Automatic annotation (TrEMBL):
GO terms for molecular function: methyltransferase activity. InterPro entries: SAM-dependent_MTases_sf. This is Class I SAM-dependent methyltransferase. One of its GO terms (biological process) is methylation. Keywords: Methyltransferase, Transferase. It comes from Arthrobacter cheniae. The keyword Methyltransferase applies.
Length: 266
């Protein structure tokens, strides 16, 4: 009888695992909003919450929010720490499950239409993220998307890079009104690919400075609310030639998305 083969070791390392309820509501709103077309037309409505942390609350929330888009969605929470997987198992239900793994995505050959990894790669070295990006991109379904993002502890400041099978597509910033002085306050929550690039001469630095200038220029609109001021800021940077990929319906939420080419590392 041939020796029994051990399953491959999960790809990645155990992260701190800190999380909070509603921490990822901003990116979930984006996935269930302008990106919902991906889930609606998917042959296999499979979504992964990669590295959900010490508590499975974000995976449960993702499942609940995406069910409003498609009620047969299947969310799989993947964690590299077996103790975290065991702790999450009691919350499993039809359409929501948990398994041990890493960036190799142990899905029995299935290809997810969306993979969300938040506050995961920020804990890796800067020379590591690109290989993990490639690993996940190569496992996406046609028209699938990989979201690599970071946010603060309660989800007031958030940003994420979106990638498809061809590579990075966009950078989104989403801020809670009243929780920042300048849009560039999000700098410490940029994805790993950009967080060390917010320096003079880099594209992302120029973009954040452009947002700041437009935000300050729109100060007179503050009396009409932060939302009006944010929309004016976005309209201004778009008029200046920054390739924004969204419009007022997203801007009013304190969100703005720009093409990756405009902010990619130099």
């Amino acid at each position: 009888m041939p020796p029994r083969q051990r399953p491959p070791k999960p790809l990645g390392t155990i992260t701190r695992g800190t999380t909070n309820p509603n921490r990822l509501r901003r990116v979930d709103r984006w996935l269930a909003g302008p990106q919902s077309f991906r889930l609606r037309r998917a042959g296999d409505p499979l979504v992964v919450d990669l590295g959900y942390g010490a508590a499975p609350v974000t995976a449960v929330e993702l499942y609940t929010r995406l069910r409003t888009v498609r009620d047969d969605v299947e969310v799989v929470g993947i964690e590299i720490d077996p103790a975290r997987v065991a702790a999450a198992k009691p919350l499993a239900r039809p359409g929501l499950s948990f398994r041990q793994g890493g960036f190799e995505l142990p899905l029995d050959g299935r290809r997810p239409v969306a993979v969300r990894a938040f506050n995961v790669l920020r804990q890796y070295r800067e020379d590591e993220y690109a290989a993990y990006w490639d690993e996940v991109r190569g496992r996406l379904a046609p028209d699938g998307i990989f979201v690599d993002g970071t946010c603060d502890e309660i989800g007031r400041r958030s940003s994420w890079a979106a990638l498809d099978a061809g590579g990075p597509v966009s950078l989104s910033i989403s801020l809670r009104f009243g929780a920042f002085a300048l849009p560039s306050d999000v700098a410490e929550r940029l994805p790993k690919a950009l967080i060390h690039r917010n320096v003079e001469g880099e594209r992302v630095h120029a973009y954040l400075r452009a947002l700041d200038r437009a935000w300050l220029d729109a100060a007179a609109l503050s009396s009409f609310g932060h939302g009006q001021r944010w929309r004016a800021m976005c309209a201004s940077v778009k008029a200046d030639g920054w390739p924004l990929l969204d419009g007022p319906s997203r801007w009013r939420l304190g969100e703005v998305t720009v093409a990756w080419e405009a902010v990619k590392p130099g």
